[in-house]
Specification:
heterodimer; A: 380 residues; alpha/beta; Aspartate Aminotransferase, domain 1; Aspartate Aminotransferase, domain 2; 2 domains; seven-stranded mixed sheet; three-stranded antiparallel sheet; 13 helices; globular; B: 357 residues; Rossmann fold; SH3 type barrels; Elongation Factor Tu (Ef-tu), domain 3; 3 domains; six-stranded antiparallel barrel; five-stranded parallel sheet; pyridoxal phosphate (chain A)
């Protein structure tokens, strides 16, 4: 029985090059902070990896800070930049209404524990942040803003955000962007974007789980969350995870077949439109990542659909957060004007480098029945 | 058969799911999220539906080797069970929420959804048995009478019983724990849950007071003389003796018991022990778990509490109310409680007590 994976935005297979890199590095002895031969050998491959990742993202190697996850990188950036700017009397955090929980929650924490004021930039029905709102905000309260964090592309809808325009409007206010979903999928240059900080995660691009990166301008000396050995510019102490770092670099150096992935995704969308006429695509007219599509199937409930799909050997998701294992209505779709009911009737399908037309065909061989059964179960 | 195993995160439902798999059924595990704002951890035997419980259920499903999902039934549970519980207390009755949960959630919302999704039935860890006989599938007491849960299942219609699988009815609890241990299920020694799952503190009176207020009212004797004051009539139960705080003693110093709760006048009526005695009870909204009861008077047993005794009685149905007449008088029966009729160990049916005399 085939088992079809269409949840590449959650995590995607380890690339063969990354597997090779991590396997061989796991057998190498040496703490990269040690000064002897063994330590220097590990430090050498680690710094090679840092340079290679920096090249891929258009930053300086010295701007790369390794972390244990994208979530950690986001926390360091948001809290660190806020604390350093708070010293200058600025306490407003500006984020968008559609951020991942790895930004929403630290922002909320700053609000409840540190006295920050959090302002959410709304999005339009197409899932794009409202630049007019942002412009007015800068004009009226620019002096009070400590940090701005807007994701480069949304993890649920794939909609790409106008970060470059945002940065030019922001002036000298530091801007962080969570680029976890965008890296390797669409052109992404830290330098060209002009942001202060940017987050990456290895396992979204064929690297291993448990390794992330924060790109941060050298000029910013921000307070650390973890204190210890002083690694990574004293911003992120902890022995560097050399095997995962070299594997991240190996994965990041590979070409991502954007146009192939997009073709598959678009074939899938056409097939869904043909088979399930009332289904609609969220953010359809917006610029989107090639591999992600978020679809609303009116009259269904997403948890039922996921169970039925899983039973039919298809792994998909809602892309939104769970609370105690219960899918909440997506805050992203709600921000785009959905009702609770339609937000709860939506699924995310995401394709990756390893996806094939056979995957699309298989999903389409079961999806119409799943939707029909899901509707019947929902009527009950 | 294709079955959905309702997995609470406890030992019973885990073993029930494992047994259903072993019997050759195609089983998926489903944990019902019933609380809108679940607590992170269980404290001892109190409450359920915490995040920890859902993790335990997931772990058990993984060990058994079945798919696992969480179904959000918080809204259905709130509307069908919690609101009902409050409404019943407000009306001066004493409801049993577990019964309501079986009636409206586990074997209604869940079973309906399961059937719509192409599943044949729901497996639970209830201690009860079903049998196929000349009258179709019937509901029976568990072999382990001390754990028997047929009382709280007595609200199931034949249609619901047909969709229910109870794999534990032939085994004692002690053996179930040992079996869980053998199967490598980490919940083998997890404490049983007691009390009402949505009142995690175990303080029912306090929980009710928070939601229904604590309007002070009179405690009166049977002649209507005020002899004390209460703080919310619904926090009293019929037959209660302690904690009445009465200021006027009886002439002979004998204790007084709660006889009646009158929600409209917010009055609690107390009286002598013998005034609690009843011999006849009538119940409304009857449900038959097998062949319907008619006007012909039959002998059997009636049970009025989840783990109460089976009391010898005669019973009949007058077309409107289920009537049971006891051989021996019974002290203290609140309206709102379920009266469940048994023929030997078979559950005949149940009704909600609305009148006693």
């Amino acid at each position: 029985m085939p088992s079809i994976y269409v949840d590449h935005a959650a995590t995607t297979p380890l690339s063969p090059a990354a597997f090779k890199a991590i396997s061989s590095q796991l057998q190498q002895l040496g703490n990269p902070s040690s000064l002897h031969t063994h330590g220097r050998a590990t430090r050498k491959v680690l710094e090679d990896a840092r340079e290679s990742i920096a090249r891929e993202v258009g930053s300086l190697p010295s701007e790369v800070i390794f972390t244990a996850s994208g979530t950690e990188a986001n926390n360091i950036a948001l809290k660190g930049l806020w604390w350093s700017r708070k010293a200058q009397g600025k306490s407003v955090v500006v984020i968008s209404a559609i951020e991942h929980h790895a930004i929403l929650d630290p922002a909320h924490w700053l609000e409840t524990h540190e006295g920050a004021e959090v302002i959410h930039i709304p999005v339009d029905v197409h899932g794009v942040i409202k630049l007019d709102f942002f412009k007015n905000l800068i004009a009226q309260r620019g002096d009070e803003i400590a940090v701005i964090s807007i994701m480069h592309s949304n993890n649920e809808t794939g909609v790409i955000q106008p970060i470059q325009e945002l940065v030019s409007l922001a002036g000298d206010i530091p801007v962080h962007t969570d680029a976890v979903q965008s890296f390797k999928k669409v052109p992404l240059s830290y330098k060209d974007l002009g942001v202060t900080a940017l987050t990456l995660s290895a396992h979204k691009v064929g690297g291993p789980l448990g390794i992330g990166v924060l790109i941060l301008q050298r000029a910013y000396e921000i307070p650390a969350l973890l204190h210890g050995g002083g690694q990574e510019r004293e911003i992120r102490s902890g022995t560097l995870n050399a095997p995962s770092i070299v594997a991240f670099s190996a994965a990041a150096s590979e070409e991502y077949p954007s146009s192939d992935v997009q073709r598959l995704r678009d074939n899938f969308i056409s097939a869904v439109h043909a088979a399930i006429p009332d289904a609609y695509i969220n953010g359809e007219v917006s610029q989107r990542l090639p591999g992600i599509v978020n679809i609303t199937f009116p009259g269904t409930q997403s948890d039922t659909l996921l169970l039925l799909l899983d039973n039919a050997h298809v792994s998909a998701s809602t892309g939104s957060a769970c609370s105690a294992g219960v899918h909440e209505a997506s805050h992203v779709l709600l921000a785009m004007g959905h009702t609770e009911a339609t937000a709860q009737s939506s699924l995310r399908f995401s394709f990756g480098a390893a996806s094939t037309q056979a995957d699309v065909d298989f999903v389409m061989s079961v999806l119409p029945d799943v939707i029909a059964t899901g509707r019947a179960a929902h009527l009950k | 058969m294709k079955l959905i195993a309702a997995m609470s995160g406890g030992v019973d439902s885990a073993v029930a799911a494992a047994r259903a798999v072993e019997a050759g059924h195609e089983v998926i595990g489903v944990h019902l999220a019933l609380a809108a704002n679940p607590q992170k951890y269980r404290s001892g035997a109190r409450g359920c539906c915490t995040i920890e419980d859902s993790h335990d259920a997931r772990r058990a499903a993984d060990v058994i080797g079945i798919p696992f999902y969480i179904w959000d039934m918080a809204e259905e549970f709130h509307d069908g069970v919690v609101e009902d519980f409050l409404a019943e207390y407000s009306a001066g009755r004493t409801p049993n929420p577990c019964l309501r949960c079986n009636e409206k959630i586990k074997f209604a919302a869940v079973l309906d959804r399961a059937r719509a999704m192409g599943y044949d039935g729901v497996v639970t860890g209830h201690y009860a048995r079903t049998q196929i006989g000349p009258d179709g599938k019937t509901l029976h007491r568990a072999v382990d009478h001390s754990k028997d849960q047929s009382y709280v299942l007595s609200v199931l219609t034949i249609e619901q019983i047909n969709g229910a699988i109870f794999p534990l009815g032939d085994t004692t609890k002690v053996d179930i724990r040992a079996e869980a241990e053998r199967r490598g299920l980490a919940v083998a020694q997890k404490p049983d849950s007691h009390d009402i799952c949505f009142v995690p503190s175990g303080d029912n009176a306090g929980w009710l007071r928070d939601r229904l207020g604590s309007e002070v009212g009179p405690i009166v004797d049977q002649d209507g003389n005020k002899i004390g004051e209460h703080k919310g009539a619904y926090t009293y139960t019929i037959g209660q003796r302690k904690g009445l705080g009465l200021t006027v003693p009886t002439a002979d110093g004998s204790p007084r018991f709660v006889l009646k709760i009158e929600p409209v006048s917010n009055t609690v009526v107390v009286g002598a022990r013998e005034d609690l005695a009843i011999t006849t009870m009538r119940g409304e909204r009857p449900v038959w778990c097998g062949p319907a009861v008619g006007s012909e008077v039959k002998s059997g047993f009636v049970q009025i509490r989840a783990h109460g005794a089976a009391l010898p009685c005669t019973y009949s149905f007058d077309g409107n109310l289920l009537v049971a007449t006891l051989e021996e008088p019974l002290l203290g029966l609140a309206t709102g409680q379920a009266m469940v009729i048994y023929d030997g160990d078979r559950v005949v049916g149940s009704a909600t007590v609305c009148e006693t005399q």
